[in-house]
Design goal:
Elements (H helix, E strand, L loop, with lengths): L5 E5 L5 E2 L3 H12 L6 H8 L4 H10 L11 H17 L4 E2 L3 H11 L2 E6 L3 H11 L9 E4 L11 H10 L7 E5 L2 H9 L4 E5 L6 H5 L5 E3 L5 H4 L2
Parallel strand pairs: 1-4, 1-6, 4-5, 6-7, 7-8
Antiparallel strand pairs: 2-3
Helix pairs in contact: 1-2, 1-4, 2-3, 3-4
InterPro entries: HAD-like_hydrolase_sf, HAD-like_sf, HAD-SF_hydro_IA, HAD_2, HAD_sf, PGP-like_dom2, PhnX-like
GO molecular function, one term: phosphoglycolate phosphatase activity
GO biological process, one term: DNA repair
């Protein structure tokens, strides 16, 4: 294995514990439009994706009880409004072990990128709630609104590499809590892909994407990267 120079981490469910509020809100907006879903269904079909695309994919997999006249654009606007309300009182904390891992990576000289299917406004709000700052907890942030193609396309990872000055994808680690995170890492030709069971998908679901490792905590990366 080549020496890792850049670790790219998903946010919600991977580095950030926000109690699935985004996907609960996504489910609420979709169900109010006339669909019937469950949180597990929303996570299975929408986790890790740019959120408007997630809505499109979820409703494409759902049979509504009657004719639906609400468009995905209208559902997305409703979702953004509900999410803004939810964030007003949301308590956000790092996932267990993440702060210790980030300290370890800094000591090892490994740069850290955060990437997410959220837009820049939502991602920045989460980081502000945790008190995380660029140059301290992470080196660069890449969001769905920063690139043309969302996951599983490799665009966000490629931008993170450019931001960090890393040219060899074989020296990049991508970790996330959904299969689409792993697919994104593979499509970017990352040297290591890691699934973590702290968020959207189960160990079996993560294993289906064939990552190099599946861990129960990102802190386990300390043993992998020694």
């Amino acid at each position: 294995m080549k020496k890792i120079e850049l670790a790219v981490f998903d946010m919600a469910g991977t580095t950030v514990n926000e109690d699935n509020v985004v996907y609960k809100t996504l489910q609420r907006a979709i169900d109010e439009a006339g669909y019937e879903t469950t949180l597990d269904f929303v996570l299975a079909h929408g986790a890790g994706k740019e959120k408007h695309q997630a809505i499109k994919d979820i409703i494409a997999e759902t049979q509504p009880a009657e004719e639906i006249k609400t468009t995905s654009d209208e559902i997305f606007e409703r979702f953004k409004s509900y999410l803004s309300e939810a964030y007003d009182n949301l308590h956000v904390v790092p996932c267990e072990g993440v702060v210790e891992l980030l300290t370890f990576l800094k000591e090892k000289g490994i740069k850290v990128a955060l990437n997410t299917g959220y837009n820049a406004a939502v991602a920045t709000s989460l980081l502000e709630k945790m008190g995380w700052k660029k140059g301290i907890q992470y080196d660069t942030l890449v969001t769905a609104s920063d690139v043309t193609n969302g996951r599983p396309a490799p665009d966000m990872i490629l931008k993170a590499m450019s931001d960090a000055g890393v040219t060899d994808a074989g020296k990049v680690l991508k970790a996330g809590d959904s299969t689409i995170d792993i697919e994104e890492g593979k499509n970017a030709s990352c040297g290591l892909t890691v699934g973590v069971t702290t968020g959207a998908h189960t160990r079996d679901q993560l294993q289906s994407a064939q990552p190099d490792y599946v861990v129960d905590s990102l802190l386990e990366l300390k043993e992998i990267l020694v």
